[in-house]
Amino acid sequence: MASEPAVRARLRRAGQEHLLRFSAELAPGARAALLAALAPLEPGALREHCLRAAAARARAPGPPPGLAARLRPLPPERLGSAARSDPATRRLWEEEGLRQIALNKVAVLLLAGGQGTRLGVAYPKGMYQVGLPSGKTLYQLQAERIRRVEQLAGGRHGTRCTVPWYIMTSEFTLGPTAQFFQEHGYFGLDPGNVVMFEQRMLPAVAFDGRAILERKDKVAMAPDGNGGLYCALADHGILEDMARRGVEFVHVYCVDNILVRLADPVFIGFCVLRGADCGAKVVEKAYPEEPVGVVCLVDGAPQVVEYSEISPETASLRTPGGGLLYGAGNICNHFFTRSFLQAVTREFEPLLQPHVAVKKVPYVDEQGNQVQPLEPNGIKMEKFVFDVFPFAENFMAFEVLREEEFSPLKNAEAADRDNPTTARRALLAQHLRWALQAGARFLDAHGAPLPGLASPPSGGEPPAVCEISPLVSYAGEGLEVHLRGREFQSPLILDEHLIGASQP
């Protein structure tokens, strides 16, 4: 274990000796824990990190000068569409995706290192229940989609296949996530195919460039953003593990999207047949000011430009057909080849530039009192998973329908969007559409047909509650045998164990 004089000398070189200012007051165990946390921080890197954070915070917010002239929308040859393609083309993409899954060449990778502070819970977001009739959590829904897509691919090709699930956690989420999976029997998955690993942590920095002491014995640390994926892949030998399993294609997604289709065969097949080394699902922006990043070209290279970096004038530009010129909204849903990820970890990761996130960071004042700030007081430096897009040799974007594939859970119930209610409604509305398309009819409590079901509901509570287990249907397929010509009263829960027992 590093001695206190040695750690103090390293902090002095980094200009951060204040982190030990309460050392003499600490009990031996607490002092040892603090020294153990500080010892790995390399002085030069720590100094550079703190200086860079303060400098980035000082830069003027808003669109970078001259950015508008460097922007171009994605050209048609770089963009596919689930909704605007003919059924035969979609089937071709889906068949190729299922073939690759059946060959055990596809893995999914979940980005789950965030703390969920905006949601207002003290546990990982994947453990959250949005209020579905089944009580399922985000983790359970995702695990069951993996099991279903394995069944679909295996059934199509007469084989048993596996989609490994890699889960990037952080110091905050690893322990609770691992325990949750163990308590729930990995939701029916083989534990050997669920691989959890941690991303790196970086000190939070005050506006004056000093790392923040959260408690007398603890530095305020934060995950290094979902772009910390690339260092974490190298740190934990994840790409080597993928190679041993024969994985060639990786679907990367964020934990909070309740509608996410894991290892989506249509997306996988599209990217493989187009020869993409890097791909991104996008949805059409709902309105010019919608706070989502835009997938576009900057100086001819694919990039995600944050909504705060695009001027209102540029965001409002329209195509001749009336759509937004910069309307390809990023939803943190990506395709990578393993070889591209290897190139990133070996060559490109050091070139990624961190982004500034200004946050409220608890700290101790000069007298050692714990302070919960009311206003943002600290800087967390983050890298984003999409920062690697410019390094792709063949980048492709794939547009999907928002109502089918994107409803993020980011905020507490008090917010007006992206909250538990909007997530629950999005899933139940989707399942009701699937049931109606499969030929089901719904009745009210008196046995009369429910009105207003001829067209899919949008917004508000669906007129009938219908929840379909991912183990029964991945994306609406195969439901006719259970539903066509039958009448149901709300709520209908279609689960693998309840099929046949549902009320007629």
UniProtKB/TrEMBL annotation:
UniProt keywords, alphabetically: Nucleotidyltransferase, Transferase
Matches recorded under CDD domains: UDPGlcNAc_PPase (cd04193)
Keyword Nucleotidyltransferase: yes
UniProt superkingdom: Eukaryota
Keyword Endoplasmic reticulum tagged: no
InterPro entries on file: Nucleotide-diphossugar_trans, UDP-sugar_pyrophosphorylase, UDPGP_fam
Pfam families found in the cross-reference section: UDPGP (PF01704)
Record's compositionally biased regions (Low complexity): 67-80
Region span, Disordered: 57-87
Protein name, per record: UDP-N-acetylhexosamine pyrophosphorylase-like protein 1
Native source species: Pipistrellus nathusii
